[in-house]
UniProtKB/TrEMBL annotation, chain A:
Topology in membrane: Multi-pass membrane protein
Parts of the chain that traverse the membrane: 12-34, 78-102, 114-133, 139-156, 187-208, 243-266
Principal place of residence: membrane
PROSITE patterns tied to this protein: ABC_TM1
GN (gene name): gsiD_2
Record GO cellular component, one term: plasma membrane
Pfam families, A to Z: BPD_transp_1
One BP annotation, GO: protein transport
InterPro entries in UniProt: BP-dependent_transpt_permease, MetI-like, MetI-like_sf
Protein name (database record): Glutathione transport system permease protein GsiD
Organism from which the protein derives: Palleronia marisminoris
TrEMBL record, chain B:
GO (cellular component) term, any one: plasma membrane
InterPro entries (alphabetical): AAA+_ATPase, ABC_Ni/Peptide_Import, ABC_transporter-like_ATP-bd, ABC_transporter-like_CS, Oligopep_ABC_C, P-loop_NTPase
UniProt-recorded name of the protein: Glutathione import ATP-binding protein GsiA
Pfam families: ABC_tran, oligo_HPY
Classification lineage: Bacteria, Pseudomonadati, Pseudomonadota, Alphaproteobacteria, Rhodobacterales
Name of the encoding gene: gsiA_2
UniProt source species: Palleronia marisminoris
Amino acid sequence: MSFLGALLRHGSGRIGACVIAVFAVAAILGLTGLTPHDPLAQDRLARLQAPGATYWMGTDLFGRDILSRLMVGIGQSFAVALLSVGLATVVGTVLGLTAAWFEKLWDGAVMRAMDVLLSFPAILLALLIVAIHGPGIDTSIVAIAIVYTPIFTRVVRGPALSLKTRSFVDAARTFGSSRRYILTRHLLTNLVAPLTVQITLALAWALLTEAALSFLGLGTQPPSPSLGLMLSDSRNLMETAPWMLIFPAVVIMLAVLGFNLLGDALRDVFDPRTRRALG
Amino acid sequence: MTLLSVEDLRVGFGKSGHETEVVHGVSFEVAAGETLAIVGESGSGKSVTAMAVNRLVDFGGGRILGGRAVFDERIDVATATEAEMQRLRGREIGMIFQEPMTSLNPVLKVGAQIDEIFRKQHGLSGRAVRQASIRALDRVRIPDAARRLDQAPHQMSGGMLQRVMIAMALAGEPRLLIADEPTTALDVTIQAQIMALLAELQRETGAGLIFITHDIGLVAGLADRVLVMQGGRAVESGPIDRVLDHPSHDYTRHLLDAVPHFRAGQAVRRDGTRDGRTSALSVRDLSVRFPVGGGFLRRTRGVVHAVDGVSFDLVPGETLGIVGESGSGKSTTARAILDLVRPSAGQIDTEGRSAVQMVFQNPNASLNPRMTVRALLAEPVIAAGQRVDDTVLDRMHTLLARVELPADLDRFPHEFSGGQRQRLCIARALMLNPRVLVLDEAVSALDVSVQARVLELLIDLQREFGLAYLFVSHDMAVVERIAHRVAVLYAGRIVEMGAAQEVLSDPRHPYTQKLIAAIPSIDRRRIDYAIDTEDVASLLRPVGFTAPPQTWRQIGPDHHIATEETS
C-alpha cells in the first residue's frame, strides 16, 4: 500500500512505527500470558535481584519478574489507552459532526460544554471523575475518554463546518441525499486524515494519563501490574534497586515518543504539500 | 520619449545558480503617455515580466538573469541596487494589484494608509497630509472624500477600494504605472469605471501605463500597443489595431477566436420555440431573506432582501439566462429553486423532486475527492431510494459516453482535467432523467477554450433530451450563445426580461443599458467609458420591511421592463 510505504519512507515515521510495533508485540504476549515468568508469582528468595541471566530486568521487592510485569503492564496500559481514545473518538466525532451540521443552539450547547471540560487540566479532571466513581480500570477508561473527547469534537467540528459549505455537499442535497449519507459519505470520509493524526497523538497522552492515575493508586489496582503502579512501587527503592524505576520509566517515555513521532509522520504523509517532497 | 526600454529580459526562480528560467528574453518599449498591454494566459510570464520592471520579483524568490531594462534613459533596473530601487518604486514607478480587498491593511483606516505615503514620500506633516489625501481621493473621483478617509477597508466596495489603490499608486506622481489585472476581481460595470478612470488619469498626468491582463478584449478600448506572451516568450507585439485585425501568430489568433466575444444579440440561438408547451419550471414571487446580526442568544438587527419577488417560466428545450452582477441575487435564486436556501415567500412548481438538478460553478469543489466515478454517479440514484443495479450501471456508461468521458468507473476526480470534471458533474445531474438543469456559473471556472466545448455539449444535450436550462452567469458573451430568453437581475429583482435577441440588442432598462455598455469587446476600440461613481444599492432593510410591488411595461411581444425603481 502506497500510504504505508510513504509512512515508512518518512524518517521519524519509521522510528515511531518500529517502537510502537515492538511494544505492541510485548503487549500481546503479556496479555496472552506468554511471559518468561508468572508476573504475579512471588519468590522470597529472589527479592530485589539485579538484572541477570534468569531475570533479564531484575525482580522487585516481592521477587516478581520485572520483565514479565512490564509486558503485562504495557498490555494493560495500551488496552486502556486504546479503549479510552476509541471511546473519545466516537463520542467526539459524533458531537463535532452534529454540532457543525445543526449549528445554532445545539452547536452552542455542545461547544460550551466542551470548553468547560477543556478548562480543567486533564489530569485534574480525570482525578475528579475517578474520585466520584471510585478507582479501577473501568473508571479510568471512562475518565480518560471524557478528558480527551473535547479535543476530538474540536478537531472534527472545524473542518466539518467548512466541508459542509463545499459544493459537493450542496450537490448531495439537491439529489435529496439523506442527512446520514451526507454526514458519513461526504463529511466523515474527508475527516479521516485529521482524525488519524489526532488519534495517534491522543494515544500518547492517554498512556501518560493512565500511568499517572495508576501511579496515584487510582487506576489499575494491585497486584495487577501496570506501568504507573510499577513506578510508584519503585519510589522508595530507587537507590537500592534502580532497575525497578528505570525500565518502566524508559518504556513510558519510548511509547509516548513513538506515538508522537508516528503522529507527526502521519500529518506529513496526509499533507499533499509535504507528501510530494517525500516522494 | 522612451520611458522604459526592455531588451532581452530573462527572469528565473529558485536557488542561486540553479534558477528555472520562466521569462526567456522579452523586449518592449513604453513611451510617456503610452499604454502597453501585456496579454497572456496564466503561466505565460506576463506578471513576472512586469514585476521584474520594478524588481518586486526579488521578493517573490525570483531574479533577473539577463538583459536590460533601462528606465528614463539613465538607470538600468536589471543591475540597480535595492537602495536605488527603493527611490524608484512609488516615486517613479507605481503599481496596482489585482485584489484591492487584500492589498490594504484591514485594521487601519483608509486615511491612515494614504497619509503615510504623503508623509514618507513628500515629507508633509500635520494638516497638509490630510489635505493631500483628500485631494488624492478627489482625483480618483471618490465622492465625499473627507468622510471616506475615516472608513476601514471593509466598509468600502471592491470598486471603491481599487480606486483608493490607484490614488495611492498615483500619490508619488509616478511616470510609469504598472497595473496587474486591476479589474479581474471586479464586476463588469465597476471594471468599466476603473478602465475609464485609468484612461482619464493617464491623459491628465502623461504617465506611461503597462496593463497586464488575460482578456485581450478588455484592452481593445484602452491600449496603444499590445505584447502577447506565451510560455515566457513574446510571440507577437505591435500597435493594437494591427494585432487585433491582422494577427500574425497562431497563438494570438487562438486567443482571439477561443474567447466568446459579446456581439450585442447577433450571436443568439434561433432554435427555440415556446409555442404550445407547458412549463417545466414555474417560479412565482420568489423571495429570499437573510437575517443579519442574529446568532447564539443575539438579536436580529436587519434583513437582507437577497431575492425579492422574482417570477418566471421555463418550457422544455428552452434556456433562460439569468444575468446580473455579484450581489444581484442570481445564485440565490438558483439555490432557492433547489431548496438549498429556504425561500421566505413564493411558489416553485416543478414535476417532482428529481425533475430539477443542478450543476455548480467549481467542478473541483462539487465532486467529493474521496469518491470514485461509480460512487459519484450512484449518489443521486441512492438518494432517490433506488437500487444500483445493472440498469443503473448501463445508464452510467451511456451518459459517460455521451459526455465523452472514458468508461472507467473506478477513477477518482483528481485524475480528470477541469473540463472533464465538469462533464462528470453534468453526467451526474442527468442520472435521474431530469426535466430542468440549473447551471450556476457552470462554465465560469473553466479555461476559455474548454468553456466553448462544454457550452457546445450543453446545447447538444438540450436538443437530445429536451432539457430546460436555467443558466445563471455574470458573463454576457456566454449567455448570448446559449440563452433563448434573458432575465436581468439587479438588487434582488428582475428589471428586464424577454427574448435574448431583443434584450441584448435593444436593452431598455437603464441598468441593462449600463451593464451592456460596460462589456469589453474586441469590436469596441477606444471607447470613452463614462465615469460613473454610483455604488450598487444596499440590500439591507430594517426588520419588517416590504418592498413596493413592481409594475411592468411591455416593449415587444416577449420583452418587458420594470418601471418601478428598485432602490
